[in-house]
């Protein structure tokens, strides 16, 4: 993989694009900023900004005004190659809170190995309706605990809207241990780009280390390749990073979410 070429494609097709991420969202370029605004259940935030030391503080203040007027918490998605060099410090000074850093990892869908055999008693079930979304939400709680209940509810609302209004732009799956959901994962397509994004994949603690996450990656990679998407992109946590690295994903850069609550 040509690291520089793929990073340039990611920057151009994902960060600078004004294609919406899901029904009901608006992605706009205002001055040097590409930002998305949607409902409370959608991801709201700044994808990319062409700023320097002279303009950064004013642009940050403008984004705060925009999202505060809309009544939305939002995220400034800071990447390791963004400028100015002290942008992180400027965001913190403006009232943003940094969340854990993630690695932006990419692999060619057709190059990934087939998934491992699932553990006995585990099966993968496609999610296509409200009942399936409810299982995904239950799997999210099993993986991350009741403290994440609000996020689980927002995620369920968003996924159901996507399945209902734009079903060609999402694939979702849940891993079932008998009748209990233990892992939920989804893939979101960006039409007009070469990238499909992998999201979710958190697994209930007692089922970790058994190949379930790897199986969901292989399941989604096969579908992406069939649909003509060349690359799979993941914002990987410290837990998923080593798994994806072993599968052949390459790290393009790091990204840190800076969150602002009005």
Automatic annotation (TrEMBL):
Residues 131-262 form the N-acetyltransferase domain. Gene3D superfamilies: 3.40.630.30. This is GNAT family N-acetyltransferase. Pfam families: Acetyltransf_1. It comes from the Bacteria. It comes from Streptomyces anatolicus.
């Amino acid at each position: 993989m040509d690291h520089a070429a793929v990073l340039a494609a990611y920057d151009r097709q994902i960060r600078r694009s004004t294609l919406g991420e899901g029904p009901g969202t608006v992605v706009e370029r205002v001055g040097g900023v590409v930002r998305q605004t949607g409902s409370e259940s959608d991801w709201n935030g700044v994808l990319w900004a062409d700023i320097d030391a002279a303009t950064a503080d004013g642009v940050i203040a403008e984004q705060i005004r925009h999202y505060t007027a809309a009544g939305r918490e939002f995220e400034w998605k800071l990447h390791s190659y963004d400028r100015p060099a002290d942008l992180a410090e400027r965001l913190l000074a403006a009232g943003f809170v940094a969340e854990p850093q993630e690695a932006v990892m990419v692999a060619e869908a057709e190059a990934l190995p087939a998934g491992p055999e699932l553990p006995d008693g585990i099966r993968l079930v496609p999610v296509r309706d409200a009942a399936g979304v409810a299982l995904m939400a239950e799997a999210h709680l099993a993986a991350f605990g009741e403290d994440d209940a609000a996020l689980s509810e927002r995620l369920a609302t968003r996924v159901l809207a996507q399945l209902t209004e734009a079903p060609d732009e999402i694939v979702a799956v849940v891993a079932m241990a008998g009748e209990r959901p233990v892992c939920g994962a989804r893939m979101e397509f960006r039409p007009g780009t070469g990238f499909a994004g992998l999201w979710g994949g958190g697994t209930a603690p007692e089922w970790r280390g058994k190949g379930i996450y790897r199986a969901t990656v292989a399941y989604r990679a096969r579908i992406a390749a069939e649909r003509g998407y060349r690359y799979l992109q993941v914002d990987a946590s410290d837990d998923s990073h080593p798994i994806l690295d072993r599968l052949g994903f390459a790290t393009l850069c790091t990204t840190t979410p800076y969150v602002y609550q009005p």
